[in-house]
Specification:
alpha+beta, eight-stranded antiparallel sheet, five-stranded mixed barrel, 7 helices, about 35% helix, about 30% strand, TMM43 protein, transmembrane helix, TMEM43_fam
Length: about 400
């Protein structure tokens, strides 16, 4: 089996532009615009931090509610009316009524999803810029380099600094697509669209057992090439690969059908979203055969990771907002190198301390109506960064 390799050619050129050094009023004007952006970012950080705490606690309560109500099914091959409308847990292999086809390449597979991924050999522009001051002017030296690569999106060469010699086609002759089976089941139960959407663990499909579909298409490794010479592709050539998710039938080349674990509401023979009293929706799907406890543990872990990620994003937004709003102090002294550097360090430390304190305070307010004791503890912690910063400031000398 032979895998074709592409031999990309690389070209470079350098472009130097210059502009007069901005005056004090111009820099002050730019800083004022940055302050407005900083204020908006600062206010948005409060919204993000506060709503994230409500979301995290609501999700946790919904998961606890789900764990207390869920019923493991004795059999996935029969639908019991006793469980109508209730939250159920089941595990079994995926099944679909018909295979998914791509007639253009003579390919079919018994799976929940089949993705055709088309890439085109194209020019790609890279730029690397450096700025320096010379004769009272700000000069910018930009190195543009061009390389040929396989890309799944059309690269618009009209935006290149130098399109001549690096022109790409405006569209692909073959399009990418994803086919989804209209009817996906586990035993006798039909999965909702939301559950099917969760089956997204795509694996590349081996094409080794397939023939070349057309005379102008050549198979190489796990790709179909639309190229006269796949070893030395030209700009505009295509290569096509396939991916599948949710194997739903035994395949001689891929193995047995995939097994999944589902927790959802039973409605007839359908598995649909379950609405909790906390206002969340439970419709959970994981690959493999998992117990009820394992599923809810994974969901709690996922909720924790998401919560901390959004907390970090909220803190960062607040830090950036404060930095932009206080940038004017740096602009006022930016012609004094030593003073400028000291002010910059001081402003960063100030932004760090205030962002940390206000973030913790906002989180504690978010918890106030749910867990008052934890809110009080976090509120006390919010004072620590400012107290530490204050303790490091030397006391004024006695007059």
């Amino acid at each position: 089996l032979q895998q074709f390799s592409d031999t990309g050619s690389r070209k470079e050129h350098v472009k130097i532009t210059s502009e007069s050094k901005p005056g004090f009023l111009e820099r002050l004007s730019e800083t004022s615009g940055g302050m407005l952006i900083g204020l908006v970012t600062f206010l948005l950080s409060f919204y993000l931090l506060f709503t994230n705490e409500g979301r995290a606690l609501r999700t946790a309560k919904s998961l606890d509610e789900g764990l207390s109500l869920v019923i493991p099914l004795d059999s996935i091959h029969s639908v019991s009316q006793q469980n109508e409308g209730r939250l159920v847990h089941l595990a079994g292999t995926l099944s679909t009524s018909k295979p998914l086809f791509d007639p253009s390449y003579g390919l079919s597979i018994q799976a929940v999803k089949l993705k055709r991924n088309v890439e085109m050999y194209q020019w790609v522009e890279y730029e690397d810029s450096t700025e320096y001051e010379e004769n009272g002017e700000i000069k910018k030296e930009t190195k543009y380099s061009y390389n040929t690569e396989w890309k799944s999106e059309v690269v618009n060469s009209r935006n290149f600094d130098r399109e001549i010699g690096h022109k790409n086609p405006s569209a692909m002759a073959v399009e990418s697509f994803t086919a989804v089976s209209p009817n996906v089941q586990v035993g006798s139960f039909v999965l909702s669209k939301g559950l099917v959407d969760k089956i997204d663990d795509f694996k590349q499909l081996s094409l080794s057992h397939l023939e070349d579909p057309h005379t102008d298409v050549t198979r190489g490794g796990d790709y179909f090439y639309h190229s006269e010479n796949p070893r030395r592709p030209e700009v505009g050539d295509l290569r096509v690969s396939f991916f599948y998710a949710g194997l739903s039938g035994d395949d001689p080349h891929l193995g047995s059908a995939d097994k999944v674990t589902v927790i959802a509401r039973q409605r007839g023979n359908q598995l649909v979203p379950y609405h909790t009293k906390s206002g969340d929706v439970l419709q959970i799907l994981y690959p493999g055969d998992l117990s009820v406890e394992e599923v809810f543990q994974k969901e709690h872990e996922s909720n924790t990771v998401k919560t901390w990620a959004l907390r970090a994003a909220g803190w960062l937004a607040m830090f950036i907002g404060i930095s932009l709003m206080t940038r004017i102090f740096y602009t006022l002294v930016d012609w004094f190198p030593v003073v400028r550097d000291l002010v910059n360090i001081g402003l960063k430390a100030f932004a760090f301390c205030v962002a940390s304190s206000l973030s913790l305070l906002t989180i504690s307010v978010g918890w106030l109506f749910y867990r008052p004791l934890w809110a009080l503890l976090i509120g006390l912690l919010s004072v620590v960064p400012i107290a530490v910063a204050k303790s490091r400031v030397p006391p004024k000398k006695q007059q």
